[in-house]
Amino acid sequence: MRAAIVENTAITHHGAVGVALHEAGARIGLYKPWRDGVLPDPADYDALIVFGGEQNALADDTHPYLPDLARRMAAFSAADKAVLGICLGSQILARAFGGQNLIGAAPEFGWCDITLTEAAAQDPLLGQIAPGFPIFQWHSDTFTLPEGAVHLAHLPMAAAQAFRLGRATYGTQFHFEANRSVVADWTREFPDLTEKISPGWAAAHPALAATRGAQADQIGLSIARAFVALI
């Protein structure tokens, strides 16, 4: 199994996705196009995973590789390779298939309660978990669903929380990869930013991690393993 991972920022955690890939013995190709513009070729890999970043999905002026990354995600999907976009990755995936990126329209942060759609009950990625669960969010943008996408999860602020295209092309607005270790590191690395977004976050974080974070860890790893099983 060969999986290409695209990181869109200098501090990127693979979290539960990395755990699931290593459990499966995957060989990983790591790409940092914000540094050098290099992106993976679908011929070289069985899957493509695109993580988040601080830029928005339309920031072509500061991140000129974004249009090519959108096309590359579509090419992997067309080749029936498994594709996963998380947060910014889901926004770029939506762009790739004709969805509209809505910049600054849906700020969400912390462990939020996701609700699955009826379609998710039959979905290979989400069908094995409860219809409602807490999972970590950190974003301000959202998107409209591409034509033909299967809507899998929603929240009042950002309705397009998860979708599937074809067999195994997935976008999740929520950070299911972000286990408690990842969230703790974000809290340490970005204290001013997290406090600005959610006043009192540093003080509230330990108790939230012990309760809602513990449940989210189990859900996130289950989702990650289900995706790897589709590769």
Model description:
The chain is of the alpha/beta class and 231 residues long. The chain has a single domain, classed as Rossmann fold, CATH 3.40.50. It has helices at 15-23, 33-36, 66-78, 88-96, 180-189, 191-197, 201-229, and strands at 2-6, 27-31, 47-50, 82-86, 101-102, 108-116, 132-139, 142-143, 150-154, 162-165, 169-172. The model has no long low-confidence stretch (mean pLDDT 96).
Key traits:
9-stranded mixed sheet, two-stranded antiparallel sheet, alpha/beta, 11 strands, 231 residues, globular, 35% helix, single chain
Short description:
With 231 residues, this protein is an alpha/beta fold.
How do the strands and helices of this protein lay out in sequence?
Layout lengths: L1 E5 L8 H9 L3 E5 L1 H4 L10 E4 L15 H13 L3 E5 L1 H9 L4 E2 L5 E9 L15 E8 L2 E2 L6 E5 L7 E4 L3 E4 L7 H10 L1 H7 L3 H29 L2
Parallel strand pairs: 1-2, 1-3, 3-4, 4-11
Antiparallel strand pairs: 5-8, 6-7, 6-9, 9-10, 10-11
Helix pairs in contact: 1-7, 3-4, 5-7
